[in-house]
Amino acid sequence: MNPSLEEDRRLLSKCITGDRNASEILVRRFSNLVYHSVQHTLVEKNISFTPQDLEDLHNTIFLQLFEHGCRKLKQYRGKNGCSLASWIRVVAVRVVLNHIRKKGMDAIAWQMKRTPLEDLSKLIGEEMDPLTLMQNEEQDRLVENGIQSLPPRDRLFIRLYFDQGTPIEDVAETMQISVPNAYTIKHRAVRKLKSYVSSMSK
Amino acid sequence: MTKICPSEEMIADYVEGRLSGSDRSETEAHLSDCETCLEGFLVVKSLLRDSDGVQLNPAPNHVTQAAVRLVQSQISLSNRPSVERLRVSIRRLYARVLDLLRPLLWGRMAFAPIRGSKIVVSNGLVHLRKIFREIETEIEVEKTTKGKAHIRVRLSEASKYKKGVRVSLKKGERVISSYLIDREYVLFEDIPFEHYAFDFSKDGVKLGTYFFEIKESHHGRK
């Protein structure tokens, strides 16, 4: 059975007061969660790793929770019913992503980022005259401004569906909306964007 | 872009569908503009999706054990003594700065008044109460042999500090002996009649100095 919010808070307040037993309980309770979160994040970002990397990141996360007089742990509130496990999961993912950003990507990640040859000419603009390039840039700027003018939910949808290439069913699940609603947002956002771009191009 | 990134708790609440109204709208607005937060959000979301069906990989025992040790060493570091040490360091620094500035301020400075009383209890025994700054002391000078005396010092009941005050008996700049006053009297034995000073300090910070002379009175008392 998962510990209740009240148990979470009790455990946390004991840790904050420097209770060594409570701290050990906290580490043991969330060690698997943190370890799994680290592993999953590295796999998700296509980063190669060793067991030592996992251990280092696992320990770094716990250290960050407890250092400077438990400064990080003190940020947990559980206001809307967020469990300590949910909160620690997000903390763990952020720490790993920050670590990846700081360290830079390794060989495997770079392989994944390699640009296909067929896209190269587009990137260096060999087949495009300067005027077309400028027009494309202008169009990109207009689209970006158009996205900014959309409501927050539509903007997030655009980022997930068009930028990230996430299937619409997954976008719906991610945003906690129904699939028909996702289609409605898609059509509405695209219509608004087209109207914005055409009004600005006149 | 909303400049301040949402807290981990806000992201967790959004991922698990606990946000509504303006909180949800603000989080969505931020995620749509902040690549860093969006990346984190998507990883957490995929992590949850995977956790539904997949058993968590257990952390090896030695990894958990290492984290426990690390966290406990962190707790030891963060415990009160270190806070105390920091406070002491700040007070020491403050005292040093004050010492450096003292010559500049000398023109404006005057001796602080020392209040006190003197009771001659008996021939050869004098009881003194001295109050300066935050400390109130009781000093007893008892003549032992010719030209020598025992000096007992303690903090009075009314003193702000009840313990942890160090008293050093000095002759000129030389420290003859030094004790930590802890509840009871501290005793300086067989001190020859002379000019002396008591330096009172707490946690290395000087609280005050009391200059005095032990001498035979006209009546042979002190």
Write a brief caption for the model:
The complex is a heterodimer of chains A (202) and B (222). With 202 residues, chain A is mainly alpha-helical. Chain A is built from 10 helices and no strands.
Helix content of chain B: 25-40%
Beta-strand portion of chain A reads under 5%
Q: Figure out the total of helices of chain A.
A: 10
CATH architecture of the largest domain in chain B: Sandwich
- Give the C-level CATH assignment of the largest domain in chain B: Mainly Beta
Which structural class matches the secondary elements of chain B?
alpha+beta
String of helices and strands of chain B = HHHHHEEEEEEEEE
Characteristic terms for this protein:
heterodimer, A: 202 residues, mainly alpha, Rna Polymerase Sigma Factor, Chain: A, Butyryl-CoA Dehydrogenase, subunit A, domain 3, 2 domains, 10 helices, elongated, B: 222 residues, alpha+beta, Immunoglobulin-like, 3 domains, 4-stranded antiparallel sheet, 5 helices, 9 strands, 34% strand
Could you describe the 3D structure shown?
The complex is a heterodimer of chains A (202) and B (222). Chain A is mainly α and 202 residues long. Chain A has two domains: 5-110, RNA polymerase sigma factor, region 2, helix turn helix motif (Rna Polymerase Sigma Factor, Chain: A, Orthogonal Bundle), CATH 1.10.1740.10; 117-201, Butyryl-CoA Dehydrogenase, subunit A, domain 3 (Up-down Bundle), CATH 1.20.140.160. Chain A has ten helices and no strands. Chain A has helices spanning 5-16, 20-44, 51-70, 84-103, 107-113, 117-124, 130-148, 152-163, 168-174, 179-201. The longest helix of chain A is centred in the first third of the chain and has 25 residues, at 20-44. Chain B is of the alpha+beta class and 222 residues long. Chain B folds into three domains: 1-57, no CATH class; 58-110, no CATH class; 115-213, Sandwich (Immunoglobulin-like). Helices cover 38% and strands 34% of the residues of chain B. Chain B contains five helices and nine strands; from the N terminus they run αααααβββββββββ. Chain B has helices spanning 8-15, 21-33, 35-53, 61-78, 80-105, and strands at residues 115-122, 125-132, 135-143, 148-155, 163-171, 174-182, 186-192, 195-202, 205-213. Chain B has a five-stranded antiparallel beta sheet, with no helix packed on it. In chain B, strands 6-5-8-9 form a four-stranded antiparallel beta sheet. In chain B, 21% of the residues are buried. Mean pLDDT of chain B is 76; it is low at 107-114. At the A-B interface, helix 2, helix 3, helix 4 and helix 8 of A face helix 1, helix 2, helix 3 and helix 4 of B.
